[in-house]
Write a structure and sequence with these properties.
Layout: H1 5-22, H2 27-34, E1 40-41, H3 43-50, H4 54-61, E2 69-70, E3 76-79, H5 80-90, E4 100-103, E5 108-111, E6 116-120, E7 123-129, E8 136-143
């Protein structure tokens, strides 16, 4: 049984999704990406500036076609503003629908049904079972903060 174009497309999508997930940065690293300057960075300089390992650039960002240049000797350099725009477009914030939640085990957005609403202090959240793995999935509905009335 040969590989059909649909199967190949699915495998490529899964491959890219896995790499995209591995390339996510935490909050302070995302803020450092916003501060990249209008200059060329080597992979080591870019990694140090953002606060990541240099291997993440080679193993994750280059396979995802981040903008880079190679000189005549094959050395790679990144333009700071181009990298920032590329990263922000690729890693946009995802908004979940009312019937969706993020499964930590599957690392996917899943459709949930039959969720139960709970309240704990000022936190309101829904709990349901993941349709793929069966583990508990939580979705925060509201987290009211205490007001400082003076």
């Amino acid at each position: 049984m040969g590989a059909t174009p649909e199967n190949m497309k699915e495998k490529i999508m899964e491959f890219q999704a896995e790499y995209i997930f591995k390339g996510r940065l935490n909050g302070s690293q995302r803020n450092k990406v916003k501060g990249l300057l209008n200059m060329m960075y080597s992979p080591k300089e870019l990694a140090d500036e953002i606060g990541i390992n240099k291997n993440q650039i080679y193993r994750v960002y280059l396979p995802l076609n981040c903008p880079h240049e190679k000189d005549s000797l094959g050395r790679i350099s990144f333009h700071g503003l181009s990298f920032r725009i590329w990263y922000e477009n690729l890693y946009r914030k995802v908004r979940l629908e009312k019937n969706q939640a993020w499964c930590v085990s599957c690392k996917k957005i899943v459709d949930v049904s039959d969720s139960k609403r709970y309240t704990k202090g000022r936190l309101i959240y829904d709990l349901s079972a993941c349709p793929i793995c069966g583990k508990c999935v939580a979705k925060i509905i509201d987290a009211k903060r205490k007001r400082n009335d003076l």
